[in-house]
Design goal:
heterodimer; A: 486 residues; Amidase signature (AS) enzymes; 3-stranded mixed beta sheet; B: mainly alpha; Histone, subunit A
Chain lengths: 486, 96
């Protein structure tokens, strides 16, 4: 029986019907991980022994007539999530020796739901990147074409799911880090509303933007996972205390009479025509599903990238101040004094892109520049949020491309930070406004996947997942598997 | 170039980052480009729009009750420290 192509929902059913065991499933996927590592480099750490022990425990639960739909289902955690007793590197030399003393809330919740961790996914260093090339542990390769990047920063998570190494992987999104790699790897990625999923134990990059989410094979699986991950956590002061619905109940609702807004600013000259064509076709599919489609405008949205590249580095420079070589992480050899300890530990421990962002943030927050850059960016952020709020007075959901181009060659954009930053031109808006958004596969451009982005109002995850599920009931793009991984 | 070598050295000092001489020119170049790029914001008509620090209206900082609710796990936490002695983190001498 082929296990690796099954969805979370199908695997859960198979486990409970005792068609196969979690140990068998886990062994099969660990073998796929092992075989793919030299090519894809999708994982930083493989936790095979722990996975098999968790799988055996899950099998015992199921045999005893207990356990839920996620019991015994393997997954991979992005290496930004703290995992007790397991290397948690965040893709950095700074944390290449860090074994977390505790589990992130997301990790703890999925563990208590009975899920089996296969390992930790590779990622851009401290989630700063759009190609997975800034990882201290080397780039991840795109399963659709190994000369190409998988996107980033959750490039390992997206490659894991695309290559069917696991049915689901956790991921995080500060400016597009779930949606853009999901698009470039042809899988489904959901960034929930700011505050919907706990960030306790998720290594901070930009605290007013970061959110935890999921990369998986379908909207249905995302609904299942979000239900287990979301909810109030007293350990995260930005966690929102509102009830978590069963996201699966709304999946089957008709889209008849729903209105989808096409964001005019998303169809700009930067959008590759070979991506625009499948996006337009996906919109026509939504019309066939009964949705009304109309154009809307968010006039301040073109300012989202410069706004982000003030706000995010500012917050990063503050958050990454904790890496000082004193309590954990990399420490330089033979420090002369405390200042030498700080500056050399940080200079050696951080990679070039992380240093660039820390310095950008330090600059925009420094005396004389704070008002001109930081406060100004926060004012533009307000305008961008208001644009979205006005759009949602007219439409239920917004749609557009996830990324301006399909996957690009490894090395093509590393020397030019601005070109790299523009990869996130369509995704950053949802982070600035704290909105839930997802990317789903909607076609191909020259053999490489293209993603459709849907954005919803705050806490409208159920609506987003419903719209994505209805599309996936009519199309097969999400079932396409890269050659060599079927 | 909107930034000079001296600017980069000052920023690196504020950020407590040791940069080698060889690294600095690339940062002068790339940070100048980034600063020019975000300088586009200057032209935005922001009027009296209030600076937005976080995206959820109505979200306020929650306070927990002033009670001990976490166990003492110092030993476990200090296992990741580069140098500890008697439960204390060791750093180079600060006061002569």
């Amino acid at each position: 029986m082929t296990l690796h192509t099954q969805s979370v929902a199908e695997l859960g059913k198979g486990l409970h019907e005792r068609k196969f065991s979690s140990v068998e499933l886990t062994r099969a996927l660990l073998e796929r991980v092992r075989a793919s590592q030299p090519t894809l480099n999708a994982l930083i750490t493989v936790t095979a022994d722990q996975a098999l022990a968790q799988a055996a425990a899950a099998d015992a639960e199921i045999a005893a007539g207990r356990g839920g739909l996620l019991t015994g289902i393997p997954l991979v955690h992005k290496d930004i999530f703290c995992t007790e007793g397991v290397l948690t590197s965040c893709g950095s030399k700074m944390l290449a020796n860090f074994e977390s003393p505790y589990d992130a809330t997301v990790v703890a919740r999925l563990k208590s739901a009975g899920m089996v961790m296969l390992g930790k996914a590779n990622m851009d260093e401290f989630a700063m990147g759009s190609s997975n090339e800034t990882s201290y542990f080397g780039p991840v390769r795109n399963p659709w074409d190994t000369a190409m990047v998988p996107g980033g920063s959750s490039g390992g998570s997206a490659a894991v799911v695309a290559a069917r190494l696991a049915p689901v992987a956790t991921a995080t999104d500060t400016g597009g880090s779930i949606r853009q790699p999901a698009a470039l790897c042809g899988v489904t990625g959901l960034k929930p509303t700011y505050g919907r999923v706990s960030r306790y134990g998720m290594i901070a990059f930009a605290s007013s933007l970061d959110q935890a989410g999921i990369i998986c094979g379908s909207a249905e699986d995302a609904a299942l996972l979000l239900g287990a991950m979301a909810g109030f956590d007293p350990r995260d002061s930005t966690s929102v205390d509102s009830p978590v619905p069963d996201y699966r109940t709304a999946l089957g609702e008709s889209l008849e009479g729903k209105t989808i807004g096409l964001v005019r600013e998303f169809f700009d000259k930067g959008l590759d025509p070979s991506c625009e064509q499948p996006i337009r076709e996906a919109i026509r599919q939504y019309e066939r599903l009964g949705a009304k489609v109309r154009e809307v405008s968010c006039p301040n949205l073109p300012l989202s990238v410069p706004t982000y590249y003030v706000v995010a580095p500012a917050e990063c420079s503050s958050n990454l101040a904790r890496f000082d070589g004193v309590r954990f992480g990399h420490r330089c050899e033979n420090p002369r004094d405390l200042m030498d300890l700080y500056t050399r530990s940080r200079g050696e421990g951080f990679g070039a892109e992380v240093k660039r962002r820390i310095m950008t943030g330090t600059y925009v927050l420094s005396a004389g520049y704070y008002d001109a850059y930081y406060i100004k960016a926060q004012r533009v952020r307000q305008l961008i949020s208001q644009d979205f709020a006005r759009a949602f007075e007219q439409v239920d959901l917004l749609a557009g491309p996830t990324s301006p181009t399909p996957a690009f060659p490894i090395g093509a954009k590393v020397s030019d930070p601005i070109t790299m930053y523009l990869n996130d031109i369509y995704t950053i808006g949802a982070n600035l406004a704290g909105l839930p958004a997802l990317s789903l596969p909607c076609g191909f451009s020259d053999g490489l996947p293209v993603g459709l982005q849907l954005i919803g109002p705050h806490f409208a995850e159920a609506k987003l997942l419903n719209a994505a599920h209805q599309y996936q009931q009519q199309t097969e793009w999400h079932k396409r598997i890269p050659e060599g991984y079927a | 170039m909107s930034l000079t070598r001296a600017d980069i050295e000052r920023i690196a000092h504020l950020a407590r980052l040791n940069l080698s001489d060889a690294e600095i020119p690339a940062y002068v170049e790339s940070l100048s480009r980034i600063v020019d790029f975000v300088g586009e914001l200057e032209r935005a008509q922001t009027g009296d729009s209030a600076p937005m620090a976080h995206p959820l209206p109505g979200l306020s900082q929650r306070l927990r009750s002033d009670a001990v609710d976490e166990p003492d796990r110092r030993e476990q936490y200090q296992r990741n420290a580069p140098a500890v002695e008697a439960g204390l983190y060791l750093v180079p001498k600060v006061i002569e």
